Amino acid sequence: MGQYRKKPVVIEAITFDEFVAHGLLNPDSPPSVVRGMPWAFKYKGNPTIQENEECYLIPTLEGTMKFKRGDMLITGVKGEIYPCKRDIFEATYEKVP
Predict the structure, then answer these.
(1) What are the distances in angstroms from CA 27 to CA 8, 39, 50, 87?
(2) Distance between CA 86 and CA 73 in Å, rounded?
(3) pLDDT at 10 over 80
């Protein structure tokens, strides 16, 4: 059995607050804002919907996942999106200069 290293790859990621800001600028039609947060909008072509003030439901290749405040939302190498817990994100990725 051999050992393997993950290939270096550059991904895009945003915070929960950046995601909310994107939704406020790009709401579904007609726009619906609840307590200052967009209810539903598309991100990278994927429909998202607010579950509550701390969580959005995100369609991923593995099914619907919860994107919670404090998480990061990653766009993968093939354009897929998925949420990632902040501690795992920080252990796995570093900022590209």
Answers:
(1) 34, 8, 12, 30
(2) 10
(3) yes
Instruction: Supply angle C-alpha 14, 19, 22, rounded to 5.
Output: 120
Contact by Cβ (8 Å): 46, 54: no
Say if CB 41 and CB 49 are below 8 A apart.
Answer: no
Sequential DSSP letters for 53-82: TTEEEEEETTEEEEEETT-EEEE-TTS-EE
Cα 68 to Cα 51: distance, rounded to the nearest angstrom = 10
**pLDDT tens per residue, range 36-48:** 899 999 999 999 9
